[in-house]
Amino acid sequence: MRKGVWITRSMDYDQSQSHMRSTLIPFSPAQPSKWKDPIATESRSLDAISGNKVVNEVNVQVILRCRPLNEDEMHAETPTVILCDEIKGEVSAVHQTTNKQRTYSFDGVFGPTAQQKELFQTISPIIEEVLEGYSCTIFAYGQTGTGKTYTMEGQKMGKSWELPSDAGIIPRAVQQIFHVLKSKDAEYSMKVTYLEIYNEEIVDLLCPNENLDFAVNEAKRSIILMEDSGGATFLRGLKQALIHSADEIYELFEKGSVKRRTAETLLNKQSSRSHSIFSVTVHVKDCTPEGEDLTKCGKLNLVDLAGSENIIRSGARELRAREAGEINKSLLTLGRVINALAEHSGHIPYRDSKLTRLLKDSLGGTAKTCIIATISPSIHCLDETLSTLDYASRAKTIKNRPKVNHRAIKSELIKDLYAEIGCLRKEVNALREKNSAYRSQDHYQNQENQMKEVPYHNKAIDQGDHSSVLLKDKYKENAKNKEKDALIRDLRSSEKALTEQILKLQKELENAASDVSSLSAKAEIHDRLLDENKTRFQNFHVQLSLKLEYLHKAVAASAEQQQQQMKLLDVKMQSLMSRRNEVSEELALQLRKIQDLYCYHIKYIGEIAGEIDRNFQSTCHKMTSEVSRGFSSFGDIFKEKLWEGISAIHELKDIIYSQEDKLTTFVQEQGEVHLRALELSKTSTKATLTFFENLRMHLSNMSKIEEYLQSAIAEKLRELEMKFEDFAVKERLQLIERVGELLESSDNRKKNMVQEAVKCLSERTASRAGKIQQEMSQMHDLTSDAKKEWTAYVEKMETTYRDNTSTLQIDSNMKESSRHCIGKAELVAEQLENISKSASGLEDSAGSMTSIIENGIKANETISSRLASAILSGLKDANLAPHPVSTPENSSQAGWDSLASVCSIIDSSCQDMGEMETFHKQITRNAKSCLLDEYEVDVPS
């Protein structure tokens, strides 16, 4: 009988254990927004129904939701740093310091304007998977104040339990479950549980006698988290409520939500201080294609996690600080689990937190999970937002192995029971056959009566045993209570000391954590800025190298072009001087021809004068002889000869006048020609001198500009070097004292200083190149002008000397001789007239006639002598005429001297251009050495 009682108690215990295990809180993985269930299309045969069907691995579904700016943020005009692309499913976070953005892609993205209904439509396929026998989990994750509770619960419902427009996922999921069950007209049973994890303690929110004071009711509400032999996690002591309608769930959920811990912080007016888990378990009866009964068990776990918070920003103190520490601890463990699963680590730290132990099946287990990551668009929450995006992005890579939960068929259970009953009957029959005996009626009746009394005795014994067990239990409990009281007193005293120590350590830890986080952020920003600065300096070095190389090529090309132009100028100058020599030779030849012609005409005039003199003397002698031989015929002959002499004198006079006019015209034309030639020579000489003077002045200016630029650039580089060294020394001293504050400003100042110096150097180099180019252009213009002037001069000289070939040069002495001859001729004419007048008296005085003739002869001889002297002076002047030819030769020599000076200037200019090219190469090497080799970046150790 005791054995039977023990069996009954064992069965009761197993039933209670089975009831407690039914309250297991698994979390199931989510699927992508376009839900594709690999199980939904499978035919469920009897072989598949006998156990759990495992499908392929699926990734955790991650949906991101960004809340709008709140009233305080909009009033403060807080800038936003989050950009949501709902079509592409991407979220971009903009870094204000680096002006860069990071983009994340998720299974679904909902911006600040998204409604609750739109979000639920994306995850509604998960609800149908629950009714197919899967364990599914939906939980919200993010910073405090980003709308996790609003997303899960939404607006509170009224007494009519009608869903408002902004109802959350939990009431909408319940409504959809009942709607699907009603549409299928299926037999089902439903149970719900609702708990919270507050300061690492599990609290049942459905307990009707729950007191909100945690310290008083800690022992009553303690729920034990256990694991069975298979590793499954279950909660002992958690109440399950049997549900028949959606309104009952709404009512229970509202009551449980009121009991949940919330508090006001600086970041949120109603901040959740605990993690809540609302579970719905559905048993649905179904039939297989063969007509057999099938029971599918699905679970939906809806988790509202408490948000991570910065204690300094949230203003949490004492109890609130402890709550925040526990929340951050559990979320940190959750992050470690996500990282370990994403990195496929061998050890997953599920047991470091009760939250991760309950979510064990949802993260890397056999459930389907959907994570709703909530973020804030404000710039003040950028660090927390980036952390949430990183965790959500890693969670996408987690893979679960969901399976369908089936129960055995009812007919199979009945067959098993019948088979067991048959076996028991066979055993009873075998015992009867083995121990059979004859009994009397009285003995049988007594035995029957005793058998009837046995239950009463057993009951009494059981009551006695039960009383003794109760007494023993009370005694043990009292002893334990005394020990507990002593331990409690010791624990309280030690707890006070530990609490004080913990508070101190917590404050120090908070300060250290804030310092470490700020230093880490600053170090990260500093490293990023250093990398960017290094990249910018490298890019600047490349650009500067390219520009300097381009400038070097331009200067080299300019120098080469200048050398070519100088060579061309040299060739043209040599050609010009050779042409000038040829022209001078031609001019000397023409002058010699003019001299010969001049001498010829002078001799011709002398011959004419001699012939005139001879004719006159002959005539006089004839006249004398005729007078002496016969004076009788003298009258007629004398008249005839007299008139012939007069006509000859008149003809001579006309010839002399004609020659005088021609000579006068020739002298005037020749004077004008020589004046023009002189003016042209002066003009060309002046233009040549001006050209070479300008060329010398411009080359001098180029040399001065080159020297000034070289000295200025050298001085600027020395100033830059000294300034950079002094600045680096000062910065090292300051950085030793204030490392955290001055790193960024030091790099900025160094960068600005180098940029200003290099910019100044580039500007000066560009100015120098411009000035050199300007001087070269002016030199080229002057060369062209000189070339044109020399060409015009040569053409004018050629024209002038062509004119000179058609004329003769007559000296002023020749002009005076001609006038003297004309005067003598006129005097002779007058004397002949006087002779004609006195012809009538010749007969009376032949002696006077002879004397007159002799006087005429003497006068003629005088005239002839004077004419001869004039001819001799003209010849002497003609012999002196070749001397002016030396002027072009001298001018040609001066031209060669000028050409030599130009060549020397050209050589010096080429040398200066070579030095300029060398100096540019030196600038390139110095820039490379300064910007690439000597510039050092502070690399953190």
From TrEMBL:
Supply the InterPro entries for this chain.
Answer: KIF11-like, KIF11-like_kin_motor_dom, Kinesin_motor_CS, Kinesin_motor_dom, Kinesin_motor_dom_sf, P-loop_NTPase
Give one Pfam family, short name only. Answer: Kinesin
Q: Which GO terms describe its molecular function?
A: ATP binding; microtubule binding; plus-end-directed microtubule motor activity
Gene3D superfamilies registered for this protein in UniProt: Kinesin motor domain (3.40.850.10)
Cellular component GO terms, alphabetically? mitotic spindle; spindle microtubule
Sorted keywords for this record are: ATP-binding, Coiled coil, Cytoplasm, Cytoskeleton, Microtubule, Motor protein, Nucleotide-binding
Q: Which residues form a coiled coil?
A: 414-441, 488-522
List residues binding ATP: 142-149
Q: Does the keyword Lyase apply?
A: no
Subcellular location field? Cytoplasm, Cytoskeleton, Spindle
Question: Its GO biological process terms?
Answer: microtubule-based movement; mitotic spindle assembly; spindle elongation
Every Kinesin motor domain range: 59-398
Question: What does the UniProt record say this protein does?
Answer: Responsible for microtubule translocation. May be important for the organization of phragmoplast-specific arrays of microtubules. Plays an essential role in stabilizing the mitotic spindle. Required during mitotic cytokinesis.
Protein name stated in the entry: Kinesin-like protein
The lineage is: Eukaryota, Viridiplantae, Streptophyta, Embryophyta, Tracheophyta
